[in-house]
Amino acid sequence: MSYLIRPIVSSDEFFLWEMLYQAIYVPPGIEPPGRDILRRPEIERYLRGWGRTHDFGLVAVDATTSMRIGAAWWRLLTGGEKGYGYIDDETPELTVAVVPKRRQGVGTQLLGQLIDVAQHRCLSLSLSVSSANPGRAALPAAGIRNCRDLRNVACHEVGGACEVHSGRESRLSSRFSV
After folding, report:
1. Looking at the domain assignment, is residue 168 inside a domain?
2. How far apart, in whole angstroms, are the C-alpha atoms of residue 102 and residue 124?
3. Alpha helices, DSSP H, located in the chain
């Protein structure tokens, strides 16, 4: 399969909503939620009003059909909009998803290129992943490490350094050196 990766543009918005839905982990044997879940404030905050100052993302496009097949983006969520992977007011949260029938390394490539952009911009990133999600196994190879576990969600950080002291997270660095 051949595909191209390009920055998100405004005409990708409908596709991004589909990818946000696909990013919701549903354990095997469980009925997926209805699409109305995207209207819940704790979910829609990852995409509503796309194009804010700190928003950035990439879309994978099939080179033959020009169909969008995956997306990865970050958004800075602060104040009352803190997301599942909140670390601090300077660390954007990641969302990554691929069309189910096209998951042959596309997400890994999207994530890798997004991390490259973050490194160039001297950003740390956060990614929250269900503890039951088998996709967690691929994260260390992409340079993503577990920062903390909260209930059934693990918070992963890309770039900054986390250390645990007496059960509390301590930020050592929030920036890459490039």
Report:
1. yes
2. 28
3. 13-22, 41-44, 106-120
* Domain-embedded: residue 178: no
pLDDT in tens, 61-104: 999 999 999 999 999 998 889 888 788 888 888 898 999 887 77
- Classified as helix, coil or strand, 49 is coil
pTM of the prediction?
0.78
Q: Please give the Cα distance from 159 to 151 (Å, whole number).
A: 23
The pair of structure tokens assigned to 12 is: 């990708």
- CATH number for position 88: 3.40.630.30
Domain that holds residue 11: 3-173
Under 8 Å between Cβ of 110 and 71: yes
Tally of domains within the chain = 1
At residue 16, φ and ψ (nearest 5 deg) are -60, -40
Q: In this structure, what DSSP letter does residue 9 have?
A: -
- Which neighbouring-strand residues pair with 169? 164
**Residue 98 belongs to a domain:** yes
Q: Is residue 120 a contact partner of residue 110, using CB atoms and an 8 Å limit?
A: no
